[in-house]
Amino acid sequence: MAVWVDAEGVLAATQTIFTGGTTGVMKFVNTAPAYVRYCDLIKGSSAYSIDCVQLVDYGNMQHDFLGNYWGTGDAALIASWIHDIHDDPAILAEVLYTPFYGGPVDTETTSWGDLKALWR
To answer: Is 63 within 8 Å of 36 (Cβ atoms)?
Structure first.
């Protein structure tokens, strides 16, 4: 697992490569909204790339995964890699995503000014 966010934690990431293994790329357990854009999300051999647990005490959540590179442009395949409210109505989290933004991240040419512009 590349990232585990728990107990109202927040994840914000841009232009980063996240590689999962046998347990996925990211797990969210009762968190605040995540903002992950323009990243590579490499699933590995796990069933899920993104796995969410959001209990009723923590309210509904939407995680922003728009504009990432998933290694495929197949929207149905990507949807099968995301475990959220669309798979189990008891999970009160939804992952918003687009199939891909155009290719792998170039982490070598990112400037601080480019990153600040993404937050505006």
So the answer is: yes
14: pLDDT strictly greater than 70: yes
User: What would the two tokens of residue 9 be?
Assistant: 């934690």
pTM of the shown model: 0.82
Domain boundaries, the chain: 3-113
Arithmetic mean of pLDDT, 22-35: 94
**24: which DSSP letter?**
B
Output the CA–CA distances (angstroms, integers) from residue 6 to 9, 27, 29, 30, 38, in the order listed. 5, 8, 5, 6, 23
Which of these, 103, 57, 107, 65, lies nearest to 84 by C-alpha position? 65
Q: How far is CA 71 from CA 32, 41, 84, 86, in A?
A: 26, 7, 20, 21
User: Which token pair is 57?
Assistant: 């005490």
